[in-house]
Amino acid sequence: MNNKSFKLGTLATAVALVSVMASCQNKDNGAATGSTAKTETASVKSGEPIVYVDSDSLLTKYQYFKDLKVKLDAKSKSAQTDLASKQQAFQREVAQYQQSQNTMPADQRASTEERLGRKQQELQTYQQNAGAALQNEQAEEQEKLYNKIADYLKVYAKGKGYKMVLTYQKGNSAILFADASLDVTSEVIVGLNEGYKSDKK
């Protein structure tokens, strides 16, 4: 089974899509607006400020994400261990059959081969189902993470009077330049972590 451990990059990609418009503008316009960020950031208007969040820093410092990664990594490791155990047991059965097949009657060989064939198919099906289950759970958790961050940023942006919150990710961003004075990552991380602590209580 392929390693289905929870990757930072996949969530970074999900979070990079977060472009919250506090003024109820269409979310689909976010990417187009992001391309003009370098001209807007030079002189932010007091009535329509635009800020950004570094998605890499956000994910590495957001406790909810770190806890989630540990949980899903553990599930992935457990699934891989379980599958490896089943595969080893099957390989032992095959090895035993290969050692004794020459002394078996023809009908017993045929029935044993048929049984081993069914087991192999069942093992392949189990592997596929386990992998699909992990992928589905990861996708669901990605959506929850996205929603948590997006919901927080909507409230945060409204409270600060921001019209747009962009995301920045080194090497994978529509923002070619952004002045550091517009970086609200630290403040957002503090708020998200405080909210997560409250949720856990």
Automatic annotation (TrEMBL):
Swiss-Prot/TrEMBL keywords: Signal
Organism expressing this protein natively: Pedobacter antarcticus 4BY
Domain of life: Bacteria
The family this protein is said to belong to: Belongs to the Skp family.
InterPro entries xrefs: Chaperone_Skp, Skp_dom_sf
SUPFAM superfamilies, A to Z: OmpH-like
Pfam family, one: OmpH
One Gene Ontology term of the molecular function aspect: unfolded protein binding
One Gene Ontology biological process: protein stabilization
Organism placement in taxonomy: Bacteria, Pseudomonadati, Bacteroidota, Sphingobacteriia, Sphingobacteriales
Claim: Iron-sulfur is one of the keywords in the record: no
Ranges in coiled-coil conformation: none
Residues annotated as signal peptide: 1-22
GO CC, one annotated term: cytosol
Segments of this protein annotated with the region Disordered: 98-117
Protein name in the entry: Outer membrane chaperone Skp
